[in-house]
Amino acid sequence: xxxxxxxxxxxxxxxxxxxxxxxxxxxxxxxxxxxxxxxxxxxxxxxxxxxxxxxxxxxxxxxxxxxxxxxxxxxxxxxxxxxxxxxxxxxxxxxxxxxxxxxxxxxxxxxxxxxxxxxxxxxxxxxxxxxxxxxxxxxxxxxxxxxxxxxxxxxxxxxxxxxxxxxxxxxxxxxxxxxxxxxxxxxxxxxxxxxxxxxxxxxxxxxxxxxxxxxxxxxxxxxxxxxxxxxxxxxxxxxxxxxxxxxxxxxxxxxx
Length: 256
Hints:
This protein has helices at 15-44, 63-66, 74-94, 99-117, 127-144, 147-159, 176-192, and strands at residues 122-123, 242-243. It is mostly helical. The chain is globular.
C-alpha cells in the first residue's frame, strides 16, 4: 500500500518581508498625495503657497496644518519626497505603535514653533517633518543601542545633503526654522517614548565601553547580526522654502 505524498506549498513571502512591504504603504500614500497636490497647484495656478505658515499672523495659523503639503517647485518636492518615503517607511517598520504620534508630533510641534518664532514669510514644505523623523530614529537608536536604526539614520544624515547645516541660517530661501524645530521635536519625542520597545529587536545589543563590566543578558542570543545595509537612493539637499510676502497675492512671490 502506497502512502500519499503531501507536498508543502511554500508561503508566498516570509513574514519579515511581508511586514517590511506593508510598512512602506503609509509613507508611499503620503508622498503620492503630495505629488497630487503639487500638480493640481501647478495646473490650475491655485497659489497654494498662501496656505503656508505666516508667523505671528492669524491667517498663518492654518499653515501649521497645511504647510507640509505644499511645495514650491519640482525640485523642492522631489528633495522632500525621497527622505520622507525612506524615513516614514523606517518609522512604521521599527515603531508601528508610535508612527502616528511621532509623525504628527513632528508636523504640529515644528509648525507651531515656526509660526511663533520664524521670519515673516510664508514657510512651506515637508522638511520639518523629515528632520523630525530623522532625529527621532537616530536618537532612538542611540537610546536603545540598536545598530539597524543608527545605521539607517547615519546613512540618511550622510546622503541628505548636509542635514545638520540645514538647521542654521545660511541660505535665505531655506526655512532653517522648520528644520531646527522639526529636529528638536524628533529628539524630544525620542526621549519621551524611550521606554517603548522597538518592533524589531536585535539579538545582540551594542555594548558601550562603560558597559564592559556588566554581565551579559542570558536571554539574548550570542549570534551576530548581519551588518549589511540595504542600498538607499541618493538625493540632493532639501528645501523648506521661505516664500516672501507681497501685497498682491494673485501672483507667486519671489523666494526669500
